[in-house]
Design brief:
This protein has 354 residues and is mainly alpha-helical. The chain contains 11 helices and 2 strands.
Length: 354
């Protein structure tokens, strides 16, 4: 019998996973529509809790004002990097000319970014409540409490890093770190969800050994993370090309990306191969066990969606909706793979039992 307090945690944990994925979708929409600098300051938007709907609501010198604020904030960040021994990164921030480029007010981009921030705030609120609920496990499963508190700290850092993303005018390496931290947050949520679910369930037992399957899933996860990082770099290259071409000739942007796009495509093939092998092994070793098969089927469906959106992006001039979906389902794939890994990792073999 699962106590009500634990059921409450498990239910909210699942909701938070879904909301976090929706937040990543919102972030994908922001990136694909070029709305990342729709709000030039943080955490407010144009110094307001509810952003303006017209440029007439802004001071005449708003461009210079927010550029000056960004420069000051970036200088503080650069000094922090220097103290950490990252002088080259500090210099790259200080000498990035794009930071001095003012953003012209665009109501659509402003509200797109603002809604993304609201989604982020809501996700943070859920994580705070989830951390409070985690204390139901303070005597029975302390790791749940520790991980929930840790995740809250990571989310707070992620929020601060989001402000740096804005102040540095979407500096590429910071955007990449921002994305990787989102995966860390997801991974912790998935782990606490799985772990609390299995506390009151007997382990699954199968006849076959699972060493190779565990290794394959691990490699698939690593390949997916590399794929996400490369995808982020492709997007950064696309952004730079778009600015150079004054956002004209969209159909030629992909051709100008260079080697990183080829690497992204090649790793995608590797991800596909790994997951096909994983699916085959799960089907062979977990026949009759709906849980593992359902997750493996989910991975297969997500892979198909990823292939379709990838083809749309490369062959149809990067449609924004496909970009957002591609980002979303890359993280959904990671989520399902990691959950499958946890499920398989805990599974015991008949030989171990006897």
């Amino acid at each position: 019998m699962v106590p009500k307090s634990e059921k409450r945690f498990i239910r909210l944990n699942l909701i938070t996973i879904v909301v976090t994925l929706l937040l990543i979708l919102a972030g994908g929409i922001v990136r694909s529509t070029g709305s990342g600098m729709g709000c030039p300051d943080w955490p407010k938007c144009f110094d307001q809790y509810i952003p303006p709907t017209s440029v007439s609501q802004l001071p005449a010198d708003y461009k210079e004002k927010y550029v000056a604020e960004r420069v000051a904030k970036n200088e503080r960040f650069a000094k922090t990097l220097e103290k950490m021994g990252k002088a080259h990164l500090a210099d790259s921030i200080r000498h990035d000319a794009s930071i001095l480029m003012p953003e012209t007010f665009n109501v659509a981009k402003t509200w797109t970014e603002y809604l993304n921030r609201l989604m982020g705030a809501f996700t943070g609120f859920l994580l705070i409540i989830l951390t409070i609920y985690s204390f139901a496990y303070r005597k029975t499963a302390k790791r749940v409490v520790v991980l929930s508190v840790l995740n809250l700290i990571v989310v707070a850092y992620q929020g601060w890093l989001g402000s740096i993303v804005v102040s540095t005018n979407l500096m590429p390496w910071i955007v990449t770190v921002h994305m990787l931290l989102a995966l860390v947050i997801l991974a912790i949520l998935v782990y606490t969800y799985y772990y609390t679910q299995q506390l009151h369930q007997p382990p699954t037992v199968v006849m076959a050994k699972l060493g190779y399957l565990k290794l394959l899933i691990f490699l698939a996860i690593v390949a997916s993370i590399i794929q996400i990082v490369l995808g982020t770099e492709v997007r950064e290259e696309i952004d730079a090309i778009a600015k150079q071409l004054m956002y004209a000739g969209r159909e030629s942007w992909v051709d100008k990306v260079g080697n990183v796009f080829s690497y992204h495509r090649d790793v995608a093939v590797l991800v596909l191969i790994f997951n096909i092998l994983v699916y085959k092994m799960v089907k062979d070793k977990f026949s009759g066990r709906a849980g593992a098969l359902a997750i493996a089927n989910g991975v297969g469906i997500v892979l198909i969606i990823q292939i379709v959106t990838g083809l749309l992006l490369s062959n149809f001039a990067l449609p924004p909706y496909a970009q957002a979906l591609h980002i979303l389902f890359s993280t959904v794939l990671f989520t399902l793979q990691y959950y499958l890994f946890l499920l398989v990792y805990r599974t015991e073999t008949y030989q171990q039992e006897h």
